Every structure is written in structure tokens, then in C-alpha cells.
Fold each of these.
Amino acid sequence: MSALPPYATTGQRAWYYSFRVICGLIFFFLIAPIVVIIPLSFNSQDFFTFTPEMLRLDPEGFSLKHYRDFFSNDSWQSAMWNSLKIAPMATLVSVTFGTLAAIGLSQPHVPFRRAIMAILISPMIVPLIISAAGMYFFYSRIGLQGTYIGVVLAHAALGIPFVIITVTATLVGFDRSLTRAAANMGADPVTTFFRIQMPLILPGVISGGLFAFITSFDEVVVVLFVGSAGQKTLPWQMFIGLREQISPTILAVATILVAISIALLATVEMLRRRSERLRGMSPS
Amino acid sequence: MSDTTQNGPVLAADGTPLKRSLAKALRMQKLRALMLIAPLLLFILVTFILPVGDMLFRSVDNRIVQDVLPNTVRALENWDAASSELPDEAVFAAMAVDLKAAAEIKVHTKVAKRLNYENPGMASVFRKSGRKVRKWDVENEGPYKERLIELNDGWADIELWRTIKTYSGQRTMGYFLNAVDMKLGADGAEVRPETERIYNTMLIRTMRMSLIITFSCIMLGYPVAWLLANITTRSANMLLILVLLPFWTSLLVRTSSWKILLQQQGVINDVLVWIGIVGDDNRLVLINNELGTIIAMTHILLPFMILPMYSVMQTIQPTYLRAAKSLGATNWTAFWRVYFPQSVPGIGAGSILVFILAVGYYITPALVGGTKGTFISNLIAYHISSSGNWGLGAALGAILLAVVLLLYWVYDKIVGIDNVKLG
């Protein structure tokens, strides 16, 4: 596919270009639904489609009114703050436990490794509605249903598989002679961990953390069941908005979330490349 | 060194045999690894595995009947459910005692609700009688058979007693049978009448739509993965961002954007009207039906298809294709007989992943599916949060979980859990 050879027949040429057009259309299908809401969110009318003014690029057709509504509406604001209170806590819990366990799992001799791995990854496999229903029953029995802690614990459990996967992936290329060298020179295990191992696996830990963060920040099914009105998060508010009466403010929220995900994607990409570079440097 | 030390066991520096000291070191290593894993394992067990297990247990749990009606259950043991005669006075007396005790602590409605799932109409019999029986003196005001039937002629219905007897065990398969549109009759499981079958329809619909979604993902994902694998790494990385961006974008953002785009007054219909494909007065109905769910979910799950396909196709040597062509194969033969078979593992991995994710979807079908495009998950959510028939919800959940775990096991055999990659 790299380039069309000069001897290509007309049929080959036609196929070459039509294939590219097909792929272009598929990429369009992937991206367009996300991109199209960005201009729509600047609509000065309460419509969900492009108004004639917008198509003429008339400044009258555009406004920030949906964004103003988002930042002044109490229910959207409290939803945003709830999300910002829950997601970092859940991330902290899953990163702490997850990193420790990932280091344990990548030791050379771990009994029942496959079984343990299967249990730790299970929150990612079990359909969310089943996790949500189970947590709803169990957490209400022990008094965690409808509390901040309950939601944080539930989201932390959902984020853990992502931390485990990214951190173990980073540890695969980790050079054990480095920790041995540190121990040889008299460093105790804690010092070795924080000064030798941690800086090297940090990219993996951070991207695992970002995955855990986005999992919690985006999650709606579990919070619908485990949370109560006091823990109404941004996705929950959007879910209600979409189901009951859809308000154009949702477009502004969606645009802000797209901006956040672009930032997160860029960070994870950067970290991945950095981690590959770091591992390339260490002798293996 | 003397001969004796060479023949004896090899010793470590401190004098213990090397074998034993190595075994000890290995044990220590294992212990340390387990100590590092233990906190998380405990955390997951308590916050996740236990809740899910607890819910699955609800699908067979039937303690309520025995807990609320202990005397009746015991008395019914001597009654033959196949006979066409009502139980004797002793059973009715036991029922009166149980009902009075239950009504005093207001649990008779719970057992009424439970039995009503199996035999609609029983709830009202229990509820109406419970209020009256509460005031009875159940020690010496017999005969209870006549009095109960006088109170509510539902007690004269032999089916009521059969249902109680059938569902008097601690465990029941009743919810599972309900979930596959069957019921427990006096003599074993039987199929429900045609008009009462809804859950099989729902299961089949979920499977069928998930298959359609998986298939559309293959059709759309294959060309893109092929393109990504066959251009320079630099351009592939650029294009990969277009695949990863939807992957990272909030699910609700993508769903809401489809909800907005697919409306009758939405952008897609506007464009179609503007081009002139459809008239302004008969705009397409793209949302709140199966089509809406399929379009939105194909878009949402497409990255999960492209990424595994791409990673498999990256490993296929382009020289094979050139070799095939130089041996006289046409473009199509070279692709179909040389390239395609090598890319099948990627298709398999992607398909299982997409299918697993699709069968368990809840949010998107709930928002764009209307009534025709909802999945089994939506039904589970309905039973857990609205109808209160938790046992049935749990049984449906257990069936869904079994399907997912089975597929996951297949995925593990083909791809391996450790090979799951993110981003």
C-alpha cells in the first residue's frame, strides 16, 4: 500500500484510490460524531442542529451561552465537583494497591499467578450492570450505599485492572540487576523501591492512574446504583439530561469532556514513548 | 579439598546444605510476592467479588417462604400436591398461625410478593387475609379451613397450595426457569405459554444485535487496520490518534452526540434532506429503535476491534504478499489465500472483545434504544431498581455473566489475559 508502482493498471489505480476513500469515510465515521458537537456547543439558539446563521458563519449565530449555563447552573456545578472529589480519591486507592500488587505479580516465583491475575482483572470483565447490582445489594447491607466512601471504593475496584495491566506491562522490561545493584550497595528495600524502581516504572504508574481516573470520571452505571443524590456525578447528570429532557448545556459539557480526553490521550502517549525510551536505555 | 566434602551435599556459606538454603530463599521470595499482592487481593475480594457472589446467590435464594410460613411448610409435607383435594384442616390451622405471626411484624406482604412472581394473584389473597387474620385468636377459633375460605375464596384454589408446596425449599431454580421463560409446575419444569415469553426474546435479541454490531465492527475495522499496518510508522501513529480519540472520549459524550445527530430534526437528517435523498416530510427514524443502538454501539466499540487487528497485522510480513504475487497470484488470491488467513487471529481477538463488551452494554441501549433496541442489561436494571424482583434480576445476571465468562475463557485461550494491551 505504501506507494502505487508505476506499472499499475487502471484497475489497480482505481482500487488504490477507492480503498483510501473507504478508509477515509471510516475515519470520518469515527471522528465526526465527536468533532461535530464542538461547533454545535457554540450555538446561540437552543437547537441541536446547525442554524442558517451558523452555516453563514455569522457571529450572531454563535455564543457562549451554553457554557455560561454550565458554570452558573447549580446542579451541573455540584455534579462537576462531585466528579472531581470522587475520581482522584478512587485513582489514589487503585494506584496505591495496584502498583504494589503489580510489583508482587512480576516477581519471578508467584504461586497461583494466573488465578490471582484473573481475580484482579475481573472488574474489567464482569458486565457493569452485574457489578453495579451486586455492589448495590452488598453495600446497602453494610451501610456504604449512598455514601461518598462507597462510591470511591466501587470506582477504585473498577479502576484496578487498568493499573495492574499498565504497570505489569512496564515491569516486563524492568532490569532486575538494578535493584540487586542497589541492594548490594547497601540500600534497604524501601529506599531501593523509591529511588531506583519507582522512577523507572513511573510512566506506567501514571498512565495506569490516568486510566483509573478516566474510568471513574466516566463511570455512570455503578454510581447510579451505589450512589445517592449526594454523589451525583457529571456522567450521571448527563445521563438524566439525555433520558428526561435534553438541554443544549449538555453540548457544552460534552465539549469540555472532549478537551479533557484529548489532554489525557496526549499525556498517555507521551508517557508511553518516554517509558519505551527509558527501557531502551537500560541494558537488557 | 578432600574427597569426603566432594561427595557430601554442597554447602552454602553458613554451612547449611545449598539445596535447603535455596529452597528457603525461594519460599521467602514467594512469601514476599504474596505479601505485596495480598492487600489488593483482599480489597478486590471485599469490594467486588463478594458483592457479585452475594448477588448471584439471590438467584437461587428462597428462604423467605420457609422463614415466614414455617408451620405451613411443615404441615404441607403430608399433603399430596397431585391430588385434587384441598389440604386438610391442620394445614389451614398452620397457615392461620403463620399468617397472624407474619402480619404482626408485617412480613406477610414480602412472602406474598415472592409467591406472586410464580402465581399471579396470590399477593392479594395474602394481603387481604393478613389484615383480618391479625385480629384472630388462632388458638381456639377453628375450624380455620372454612374461616379462611370465607375470608377470601382464593384459599379454596388448589393451585395456591401447590405453589406454596413447590416453592417451600430453601433454594429454588424458579428464578432461573423464569429467566428462560419456564416455570416450576407441580411435576417439574414446564414451558410457559407463548404469550408470557419475554426473556428468551430478550436474550436472543441481545445476542443477535451483539452479533450484528460485531460484524459491522469487523467490516469497518478491517480496512482501517490494514491501512494502518501497511503505511509508514509515522503516518500510522498519526492515524492511530483518530482511533484512540474516540476510545478515550467519555462514553456519555459519544452517546449524547449520537442522540443529537440521529434525531429526526438532527444533523444527519438535515444533511440527507439537503442533498435530496429523503424528503422533508418523511425524515428517517434513526433513533429509539434497533438501528439507533446498532449505529451508536458500532461507533463506540470500533476501536476495540481495530486495535487488536492492527497489532496482529503488524506482524504479517509484506514479503509473503509479494511472493504470492510473483508466483502468479492475482491481487485477490494473494489477499484471500495468503494475507487473510494470517489476520484471522486478530479478527478473532477483536470479535470476542467487542462481543463481550456488547452483550453487557447498558447505557447506550438505554439512551438510544427506545423500547425495541434495549438489551438484557436494561431488563436486569429494571428488575433490580424498579420491579423489585431481585431474584429474577440476579438469575438473568447470572446467565449473562456465564455467557461473558465463557467467551472470556475462549479469549484467554486464543489471546491470553497477559496480552491485553491498552492504548
Note: The CA atoms of residues 81 and 162 of chain B lie 6 Å apart.
Amino acid sequence: MIKRILVIDDDEAIRKVFLLALEGTEFQVDTAPSGAIGIEMIKEQSYDLINIDLKMPGMNGVETLREIRKINPDTPVYIVTAFFGEFEEQLNAAQKEDLKFELMMKPLTMSQIVSLARGILNGAVIY
Amino acid sequence: MVNDRQKILIVDDKQENLYALEKVLEKVDADIIRTTNGNDALIASLNHEFALAILDVQMPLMDGYELAGYLRDGEKTRNLPVIFLTAAYSDEYHEFKGYEAGAVDFVSKPYRPEILLAKVRIFQQLDRQRRELEKTIALEKQKNHLENILLSMTDAVMVVSKDGFIQTANEATLSLLSYAPGEIIDIPFSELFEDNILSPWKIAEEKTLSSTDIKNLAHHNIETRVFTKHKEAIPVIISGSAFHDRDNLLLGVVIVARDIREQIKSQKALEASEEKYRTLYETSRDGIAFCDMFNRPIDANRAFLDMVGYEKAELLELNCRQLIPDKWHDMDANIFKEQILPRGYADENEKEFIRKDGAIFPVSMRRWLSRDDAGNPIGMWILIRDITDIKILEQQRIMTEKMTALGMLAGGMSHELNNPLMGIHGFIEYCLNHTETQDKRHAILEDAKRETKQCMDLVENLLTFSHMGQSSEEKYRWVDCEDIFDRVLRLLAYRIEKEDVRVVKQISEESRKIYTKGNTMQQVFLNLMTNALDAVMAAPKREIRFEVRPSGENILITLSDTGNGILPGHMKRIFDPFFTTKPVGKGTGLGLSVSKSIVESHGGEIVYESTPGKGTRIGVRLPGKKD
């Protein structure tokens, strides 16, 4: 069965990099330009890995995570960001609420994206 | 009394008689005044003090008795003894009755010289006794007068005999010492006074007061204690003076003792209060000095002397203006004219002072005018506080603020830059993956990828650099000093490359971690590295060597440059705050002093050596990791 990855990022370039990086791999990648659209997609379709941008207009990464966890408490979620200083409190709060997530620092190279996906979804060690 | 020699008046109308009489009186010790008539005799009696008058009875115009009558009426001559020379047959003397007995005698003519001489001598003797008596009466009067003064004096006055006993004491003495009148007489003075103070009198106690003892005492105010009848000791100040008889033999000493209990009490209160201010003045950490209206120092406290580096004697030779750099003089003169003179004080203001060794340090200064009782200005109090530490803290705060601002900027920017950079990098990677390696475009894409990665690293470094030290809760942790140095290098990469400086790193494997907090050590390396870069700029060889090696239990980080070195005259001052050799606007002069304070707060120290023309080596010694 094909493993599905969802990338939620308001930046088109980032969405495109994920698509290009994972093109031709064993994974199926979908993208969403906002948290709200992403949530709608998760309701329709279950995913094996979700990458969320932290700083987004509308729902930010932490708010999106909270909604995702209402639907699916166990899917691995990676919050990918360049700078989380201003979201530190929200991230801490999410941790206290027992919402599972991992942090990943931007920028990521293509090879990093691929090894990350493989590491998580195929049980291999990252890098 | 100009002349003590007695004078005798002789009156006779016949010159030959006068001559004969003078001849007889040659044997008498007296001056002879002669007249030939009563009128001249009366005039002479006004001008002279006679011991005796010898009058011829039978004279024309005014005879002897008549003259004697006038003399008896005269104030000065009322008691003047008279010898009348009478004719032997006459009984005229009966006519002169009522004249004081004993003061009149009669000698018949012709007289026998020895009888006349004998009578004259008796009268001379009488006159001497009378004079003596008069003198005694006058003395007695004077004594009473003095006694009255003594009685009314509030100081205790006593007369001590030459063998050391109290002879007389005034009322004040009695009340001070609680004696009844009479009780104090004949008490040895050594019993009254505390003897250790009265050592000059010790000898006198054994025998008699010698004249040197008296000299020691005379007009000297000696502080001692006097004992009352009940042996209570009372502090007094005494002075004394000796008195002598006519032949300058010592008779005794007059001692005046003043009760100083009240004086001591108020003096103690005054001393206590003075002591308080003196202590405050001397222990104050602010420098305080007093100078006259011509800016000449009069006094300065310890803190002031320590600050300016002069001893007091040296300071008093200077003018206060010499302690302040020239550039402040105009401002000072204005403050003096516009603030100090009209209202008596100056607002606190910041300026600089020059130490004896030439170092300049910032101070905050206050001045007040001091006036005499008449309100005329007599000088100024100057208070200075060394604000070097405050300036350093201020500079550190500014640096921290800069870092915080940079951190916020970097944070925002990195987000904005990272997304596109990640995009670019990803797209290049995609293209690379889809280009044959033999294809020329493959290599070009590799270049594009490398350059993009460099941009990503730069953004990351900026973020890391600014991020640290932002939070005050940041803890000490072990950090690899190469990582810190590399971050500094990346920040300075542009300049290093542009100036074509070779940077060599030599880091020992066993000891490379330092225990530090936030980005403080990073600041130190940045300061030292910037100085090294500035130093090599003017040198033909541009090399900076960064070495880390263990040094005993410590770790020694050295930064050597091939610059022109530090001038010998500047060596001692490189850590002085505000000392800089860089052009205005290029350096604050605080870099090294801030670095020093940071290193010291890590329990380390900064050492350096410099050879003019060859370069400088500066070392940071920090506690090493013990494991």
C-alpha cells in the first residue's frame, strides 16, 4: 500500500520542493496551502506523515496540529520551521496538552526531505 | 618717688646765718633747700617734699612763727616738723602753742652744732618712720582691693607659700573644693592637685619651690585635676605666677584654677560630632576635596587622593585645573560663573579627570561654594565619583541591546529568507538529479547549489550568533571554543577575505571546551579578532593565529597577530576603559576592558605580550574541564 504524505505550507516554493524531492519515490505526496484546507483533506483521506509549516496566515502550525489530533491522534506530525521564537509558548502549551509532534528546522535540502520521509515511514534511521 | 634722699628747708633773712647753718648740716645725709624769706619758703614747700624745716624766728615781714602757721595750714606740709631758732633770752616759744607736740623744737642761738645735728637726725628718723607707715597703709589699701577682686572671681584663686602650703583661698576655691573658710589654710597643695601633672612642683614638695619650678608654672595653662574635701576629682586648668619680695626672693605662688567640667562636656560633644564627620569624610568612597577661590587645593580625602593618584602634599602643590583635561575648562568656567557664584552650587555633571600617571577616567562631579561668616566666598567643595564602572555597564547594556535587536532582525529575516532559499536549493537539487553528470550544466548547477548553501549557512550563523545570550536565564554550559571562533570568523569572513588575511587555527584535541554562558565569550573573541584585524592592516604580513591548548588545569586560548605591536607607552593602559588608538568613531576604547571583565567573570584572566614591529599575542586563560 502506498504511503501518503501531506505537506501544509503557505509558501508555494516549499510545497513544490517537497513534491519534487519525493517525486519518483515510493511515497504519494499531497499539499495544502493552508491549515484549514489541510484539515479538510485529512478528513477525506488518511495520511502516514504530515509536515506543517509553523508560521502561516489563518491557522498557524500549532492550531492546525490541534485540529489534526482531534481527527487522528497518532499520525506522525512534523512542524517544519525556520524560527520558532515567537511560537515558543504555543509549542510548549501543545506539549503540555500531550499533542504528539516533532520539530524540524528549515531549511531542508531535498536529500534531507527524502531521508526524513524514509526514516519515518520505512523505520530507517534518519540520515 | 624719684629721689629718696630727704630734703631740709632752711629759712633765715641773714645770708651769713644760712651759710653757717649749711656748714653744720653738711654732716647730714640730706639735700638742703634755702630761702631768705617766708614767701620763698612757702613756694619751695609746694615744689618739694621736706622732711624738716629749720626756721629763724626773727625775720622781717613774715617771722618764723607766722611761716610755721602757714605751713601747718598747707595740705602737704601739715605734718612738717619744725625747728625754731630763737634768741636765748626770749620766751617767744610760749606764743606758739597748739602746734602738734613732738613736731616742734626750739634751739637757742647761738647754738651748739652737735645739739642741732642731734635734733635734726631725730626728726629725720621720725620722717622716715612716717613715710614707711604711709607706704604700709597704701599697701594695705591695695591688698584690700585685690582681696575684693579675688572674692568676686569665679575662678578658684589660692596663694601657696614657698614651702608649698595654702595660705589664702578665695570663695570660689572653697565652693569648688567644698571646704569651709579656714579649713583649707595650711593644707599642702600636693594634696589638692593630682601630682603627676604637677611634676614641676614635685621637687618643691620635698623642699621649697625653686625658681625654675615657678617659671615652669608661670602663665602656663596646665590641665590637671583638683580634689575636693571628699576626694572627688574635678578637672581644671591651672596657671600660676610667683611673687617675690623686694630682694627678689621667692615668697610664694598664686594659683588660679578654672573648673573645666562644662567645657570638657561640650568639647566632647563637639569632638564626637567632628569625629563623625571626619570619619564620613575619610571613609567616603566619593572623592572630596576643598579648594580656594583660585582653584588651589586645600584639603582632600583618601578617596580623592586614591582616584587622582597623588599624595596629599603633591596635590596641594597643584591647581585643580591640572586634574581636568583642557577640553573641560571652558565649560567649568561657565558653570562657575552661571551656577556656583549666583546660587552657591553646581548641578551634578559628568566630565573627566586625569590621574597622576596620565590615565583619564570619567567622573560625575558636584561642587558647592563655601562662605565665611560674613558671606564672602572662601572656596569650593568638590565631590567626584568615579563612573568608569557605570560607563562599562552602560556599554555592556548597549551591546546586549544591539544583540537583542540583531536577534529579532535575524529571526524575522531568517524566516523570510529560509523559505525562498530552501526553495532555490530544492529546485537546483531537482535539476541536478535530472541532469547527466557529463552535461556541462551539471557542474554549473553544483556551483549554484554550493552558493545557495552558503547563503543558508550565513543565515543560520546569523541566527545562532544573535540568538544566544538573549535570555537572562541562560545557563553556563560546556561549549567547544572552535565553534565559537568559527561563528566569529563567519561574521568577519567578508573582511578577512577582502583584506587578504590568513587565519590559522591550531586547536588541541584534549582541551577545547570552555564553560561559558550565552554569547559572552563570542563577544570576547569578536573583540580580540577585530583588534587583530585592525593590527595587521598596516603590516606587510597579515596573519592571525588562533591557538587553543591546555595550560595546567586551565585552557589557554591565544590569538597572535603579525601587526605592528603595541607601543611600549601604551602597554599598561590597553585595558583602561576608553583607552583607544583607533581614530574617532572607529573604537569606543571599551572592547578590551569589556573583554577583560567578561573573562574575569568566567574566573579567567587575559594576558598579553607585544613586540613593536612584530606583533601582539593575547591570551585568554580560562578554567578547564576537569574530567
Note: Chain B touches chain A through 21 residues (CB under 8 Å).
